[in-house]
Amino acid sequence: MPHVSPPSIRPRKSPLGERVVFLALLSACVWLLLAGGVEVAVDGTRVFSCHRLSRPVLAALLLAGTRFALSGAWRERVTSWVASQWHKLREYHRSAGPAPWALVALMVGLPTITVYLLNDRLPTGGDAVAIRQTAASLVLRHDLNIDEYVDPADPPYQAVWVSGHWYSAFPPAAGMVFLAPLVQIGNWINPNFTEHSVVRLEKLTASLVASGACVVFFLALVRVVPPTEAWWLSILLGLGTGLWTTGSHLISQHGPVCLLVSLVLWLELAGRSTGLGAAFAGACCGLAVVVRPTAAIWAASYAGLVLFRRPRDLALFAAGALVAAGPIVACYWSIYGHPLGAYRSALSDGRWQGNLEEALPANLVSPGRGLFIWTPPTVLALGVLLPRGRGALPGRVVAAVAAWLLAHVLVVSRYSHWWAGHSYGPRFLIDVMPGAILLSAPTFARFWQSRRPARWLLMSLVGWSVFTQIGGAFGRALDWVRDPVNVDRAPGRVWDLTDPPFLYDFLHRGPPPASSG
To answer: Is the predicted pLDDT of residue 12 greater than 80, yes or no?
Structure first.
């Protein structure tokens, strides 16, 4: 292929009006930094708040933006660099050249991490409490029990008593792999490290993992669809699914699984999944399984793809999974006496008595938990069933991802608590969002390139998906699970058209919750 030089851009002097608007926005950033945050409420209901963790991001934007606004030479260098990187991105879409990581980090990573850190809530409750405590105990006391955090007279549901100690009742691998390194760094920097510091680090770690998933997912998508469409779909993953309200808030299981699945998809679509790439893909799949055991469905589906594509790579795939997951499985076995850790109880017969006829439609189309209601662009995934509907997606990838999606939805719908308990939106389906959006990409791109009304419709659907998540990120919508009736006692509430969770802040006025999990 002949080399094509990147297009040159003639420097343009910014009009005075543009500079004034730009400097006004920068002044607002300065005010946010000096004020330490801002909260906007309507009739006592918080609609926006700025978390102090976002100050470094705002400070960096402030410095770069001021120089961009006031220095013509700097503007010329920035615009020239962006043009060259965009050219590399378009070349990456057409060939297997190097990925422009810097530009993708600015296009996808910066917007998502900024939005994530605008949420001022700290993860003080929820299933991930014991996972965070396990990471802290591993670093600060060099063990995995959480005895120091548990009151034996009133033990929380997140803890389980095993062999004379309290341990996490949920797989702690996410905390051990993703949170513990940052806790160690924080402990080196500040010897007076406290539990509150670990809570803040959990929020930061979860946001970095979720944002990283969006960056890697974009690089996978851009091998299938043009960069513009890939950007919209990556923002859909980051802000239009539970990856925002749950994955970026708690270092539990969903964010890491999305990141690990996205890494495997990128390796496969970029043509780097053979040889050592197969071993790395196996490591990602193995880690995903120990983080969240239902990811075994994805690991099995992708292993079938590896076997079909290049059987000799299956040994490397298995070796990578063993190296990455083996130590954690051994740790689980030594503590819990089972390779799934505390999740061994999930294998009991009583946990899988869900009514499929009730749960399956609810997980797809109900106002309270329906995937197609909360993230409607995923309906486009059905387009791969049409002739030539898979576009540039390899058939083996479509088959593996489709099998994973179908099996995962059926499995979680058979679970006795198919509505995912006290959670927001279709939480049990967060893990499969990279696959669902990937299968949606060819049909999304086809509509995007057809006519302008179709493009506006797609943008509206992405906007609706983001809107459904705003209540869980900034408002009181998490209170929906217990107001007016606990959803665990009345799961049929997910079908209530008059009180969907994403409209809770509009239908129920009142003060914001003190904390969320």
So the answer is: no
User: Do 123 and 174 touch, CB atoms closer than 8 A?
Assistant: no
Residue 68's pLDDT band (cuts 50, 70, 90):
low
How is residue 425 written in tokens? 């939106």
Alpha-carbon distance 146 to 404, whole Å? 35
User: pLDDT tens for residues 232-291?
Assistant: 999 999 999 999 999 998 887 899 999 999 999 999 998 888 889 999 999 999 999 999
Query: What gap in Å lies between CA 66 and CA 509, rounded to an integer?
Result: 40
Per residue in 200-239, pLDDT tens? 888 889 999 999 999 999 999 999 999 999 999 999 999 9
Mean pLDDT rounded to a whole number for the chain: 83
Q: Two tokens at 1?
A: 């292929």
Cα radius of gyration rounded to whole Å, the chain:
23
Tell me the pairing of strands 159-162 and 45-49. Answer: unpaired
Q: How many CB atoms lie within 10 A of CB 157?
A: 10
Distance CA 131, CA 159 (A): 10
3-state secondary structure 341-390: HHHHHHHCHHHHCCCHHHHHHHHHHCCCCCHHHHCHHHHHHHHHHCCCCC
* Cα(7)–Cα(5) distance, integer angstroms: 6
If you count them, how many residues does the chain have? 517
User: In what helix (H) or strand (E) does residue 465 lie, and over which residues does it extend?
Assistant: helix 452-474
Q: Hey, what amino acid is at 495?
A: W
User: What are the tokens at 88?
Assistant: 């590399």
Task: Please determine, for residue 47, whether its predicted confidence score (pLDDT) is greater than 50.
Answer: no
Distance CA 157, CA 125 (A): 11
Which neighbouring-strand residues pair with 167? 160
CA distance 484 to 73: 60
Give the contacts of 253 (CB within 8 A, at least 6 positions apart): 170, 171, 174, 291, 292, 431
Contact 156, 517 (CB under 8 A): no
Sign of the dihedral through C-alpha 53, 55, 61, 63? negative
Contact 426, 369 (CB under 8 A): yes
- 3-state SS, 281-301, equals HHHHHHHHHHHCHHHHHHHHH
Q: What is the pTM of this model?
A: 0.85
Element (H, E) at 45: strand 45-49
Give the CA distances from residue 407 to residues 52, 297, 298, 402, 490, in Å, rounded to whole numbers and listed in that order.
Answer: 41, 7, 9, 9, 26
The tally of CA atoms less than 13 A away on the side-chain side of residue 267 is 23
